[in-house]
Design goal:
The structure holds three protein chains of three kinds.
Chain A lengths: L2 H34 L2 H32 L3 H34 L6 H27 L2 H26 L5 H36 L17
Chain B lengths: L12 H6 L16 E12 L2 E12 L3 E5 L6 H5 L12 E9 L2 E2 L7 H7 E4 L10 H11 L6 H11 L3 H4 L12 H13 L5 E5 L7 H14 L4 E5 L3 H7 L2 E9 L5 E10 H6 L4 H7 L5
Parallel strand pairs in B: 3-8, 3-9, 6-7, 7-8
Antiparallel strand pairs in B: 1-2, 1-4, 4-5, 9-10
Helix pairs in contact in B: 4-5, 4-7, 5-7, 7-8
Chain C lengths: L5 H43 L5 H5 L12 H32 L5 H13 L4 H15 L6 H25 L3 H9 L4 H30 L2 H6 L18 H10 L3 H33 L3
Helix pairs in contact in C: 1-11, 3-6, 3-8, 3-10, 5-6, 6-8, 7-8, 8-11, 10-11
Classes of the chains: A mainly alpha, B alpha/beta, C mainly alpha.
Amino acid sequence: MRATLQEELDTLQSTLLEEGELVLRALRGSMEALENRDPELADEVIAFDDEVDRQYVGIEENIASLLARQAPAAGDLRLVLAMLHTNLHLERMADYCVTIAKLTKLVYGITPDQRMMVAFQEMGARCEEMIRAALQSFANRDVAVAESLVELDELVDRGNRRVMGHVLSLGSNPAIREWGLRMIVVSRCLERIGDHAVDIGEQTAYLVTGEFREFTDASNAERLDS
Amino acid sequence: MAEPSNTPATISEVSLEKLVQRDDRGRPSRAAQNVVFEVQNLGVSYDGSPALKDVSLEIYQNCVTAFIGPSGCGKSTFIRCFNHLNALIPGARIQGKILYHEQDLYGPGVDPVEVRKRIGMVFQKPNPFPKSIYDNVAFGPRVLGMTGDLDGRVERALQQAALWDEVGHRLKSSALSLSGGQQQRLCIARCLAVEPEVILMDEPASALDPIATTRIEDLMHELKAEYTIVVVTHNMQQAARVADMTAFFSIERGEENERSGILVEYDLTEKIFTQPSDKRTEDYVTGRFG
Amino acid sequence: MSAVPGALRGERRRGRVSGVLFHGFLLFSLALGIGTLVALLAQVVIKGWSNVDAVLLFEPPSADPAIAGARPAILATIYLGLLVIALTVPIGVATAIYLEEYADKDRWYNRLLEVNIQNLAAVPSIVYGLLGAAFLVRGLGLGRVLLAGAFILTLLVLPTVIIAAREGIRAVPGSIREAAYALGATRWQVVWRQVLPAATPGIATGSILALSRALGETAPLLLVGALTYVSFNPTLLGDFTALPVQIFQYIQRPQEAFKTVAAAGMVVLLVILLLLNSVAIWLRNRYQTKW
C-alpha cells in the first residue's frame, strides 16, 4: 500500500546517500589540496560545491512536496524529518570543505609546519571515517554505530585543541604566523565537520527511537549519552 | 478487579502529565485528567456473534477523544454503548462495564433517559426533525421537562453551535431548508440544548464538504472547554487535527474465523501519529494496511 | 456529423421499433381503462343529472317518483361516514403504532397478528355482512340498527386503515427516531411527537380512501338490515338505510321514472366520493414535500 509514498521515500534516501558520497569526495579533495599545496585542486573542490548544492536544493524541494501531498505519519514522518536535517548537515559539511580549499589557495606558497600537517591529515582521516559511519548508520538504522560517532568526534576535538597550542609555538616569521592563523580556521572547519557528522547520528537515533536527544551537550561538562 | 487480559499500551506518566495544562506559574489550569468514563473489559455481541471484544480505557474530561480504525472494527458499536443506543438494536448484548463518574452505566435500574440527558449524540448524516429550527432545538428541553426560559435555551444552544448568526432571525423556518453543514450544526445545537456533559459524535463530518467539515472541527475545539467530546472518525487526518487522545481499533479473527473488534492502542494523539507503540497502529497510520 | 459510424445508427433503429410498440400498448391500455370508466360515468350522469334537485336531497322516499327523495339515505350515509371515521382511525392507528413501534417482531402472536391483518383486507364484504348479522344483530342483540351498520363497516375497512397507517409510520426515517431517542425521549414521546405527526399525511390519506370504500358498500349493509323503506331521519339505534341501498331499491321499482331517481342518487354518491378523494389527494400533496 502507498507504493507512491514508499517509492518517493526510497528515492529521497538514495539521493541523500549520494549527496553523502559527494561530500566525502569534497573532503578528500580539500585535504589533498591542503597536503599537496595544490591551488588547482582547491579550485576544483570549490567548483564541485555547486553539485552538492544542487542535490541539497533538490532534496529540500522534494521533501516539501512530499509533506504537502502525502501527509506522512509516524515512522514515515520521522524519516522525512531526519532526512531534512541530514540534508542540511551534509550541505554545511560541504561548505566547510570549500572554506578549507579557499584557505589552501591563500597560503599554498608558504612552507607549512610538518607536525601540524600530519595532525591535519589525522583529523581529516577521522572526519572521513565519521562521515562514512554516519551515512552507514543512517542507511542501516543502526543506533549503536551512530553513538560510536561521539568517541570519534572526541578525537577530532582533541586535535583541534592541540592545534591552538601548536600555532602559538610557531615562531615570529610573519609568513608562518599568517599560515598558522589560517590553519586555526582549517582546524575549526574540520572540528565542525565532525560535529555535523554526530548530528547526523542523532537524527538516526531519533528516526529509530522517536526521541530526540543530543549525544553530547556543549553546555554541560559531562557527556549525556548512556 | 482482575487485570484485563489484553492490555493495550498504557499511557505513560509523562504522557498523562501533558494532558494537564499549566499556567505560567506551573499550576494546573485545566482539570483534564478527571476521568469521565472508565471502560472495563467491554464486549458487545449481536445475536451471539461478537462485534467488540475486551475493551478497556478511560475517557478524560474536557478532552476530545477520537476512535479510529478500519471499517468493521466496532468503533461505532463502541460509541453507542456510552448512551445506551445499542439497546435500540434487538439482540445486542453487553459484557463488561462502563463506569460513568464511577456509576455503572448498565447497572440495575439505570434509566436510559437519564443517561441520554447527560450524554448526547450527533450522527453521521444530519437528521434534523421535519419541523422549524426553533422546534428542533426546543425538542430536547421539552421532552425532558426543561421548559423554563425556552427561548433563552434555544438561543444559547444556537450560539454555542456557531449557528445563531445565520438563523437567529428565521427560527420559524423549516430546518430542512438549511444546507448540510448548517443542518449538522443544528443537530449539535439540538444536542447542546439539553446541557449534556458529554457529546458523542459518530463521524459527524463525513457527509459534509471540506469547508463545513472545517467548521465542525473548529466547533469541536471550542466546545471541549465546556464539554467532553468523543468522536468516531474514519478520517485519520481529522483525528490528528482535533483529538487530544486517540484510540486505534482493529479487527481480530477468532478461532472460527469470526471477526471482532479490539482496542490496539490508546494514547495521546501526537504519540499515535509520531511514534506509535504497536506495529498495527503504525501500519494503519502510515496507510500501509487497508 | 459524417463521422458517425453506420453501426451506431443501425442500433438506434432496432431499439426504436420495440420502444414505439411498447409505448403504443401502454396508451391503448390507458384508453381502454379510462374509456370504459368515462363511458359508465357519462351514462349515469347524463341520466340522473336532471333529477338532482331539492326534492332528491330533502324529501323522503315515496311511491311517487316525482316526489321521491333520498334524504334519510343521504343522512344515514353521512352518519355512517362519521361513525366509521371516529372508530377506525383511533383503533387502526393504535394497532399500527403497536405493530410498528412496540411489538417484538419475533414473538409468535405478533407475527400471527400481521398475517391476519393482511388476510382480513382481502375478505369479501358480504362475509362481513354475515358476521354482522350473526354477532352484532342477533348475538349482541343490537338489532338492525345504524350502529350495527357502522360497526360492520368499521371492521370492513379497518385492515385497510391499519395497513395505510403502517406504511405512513414506516415511511418515517429511522434516523429521526434515533435522534429523538438520543435526546432522552421515551418511546411514547418519540411516537407522539415525531412519528405520528410525520405519518399523519399517510394516515389521513389512507383513512379517507378507506372511508370512500365504506360509503360505497351495499352488501354488508343489506345483511345488517338497511331496510328497504325508511321515510324518517335515521337515529343511532333505529332502523336505517344508506344511499347505495336506496339506489338499489329505486332501481328495482318497475317505473321508468325511478330509474332516473336512482341515477340521480348515484350522482350524489359519486359527488360525495369524489369530494372525499379530492381531500385525500390535497392532503397528500400538501404534506408530501416536507421530506
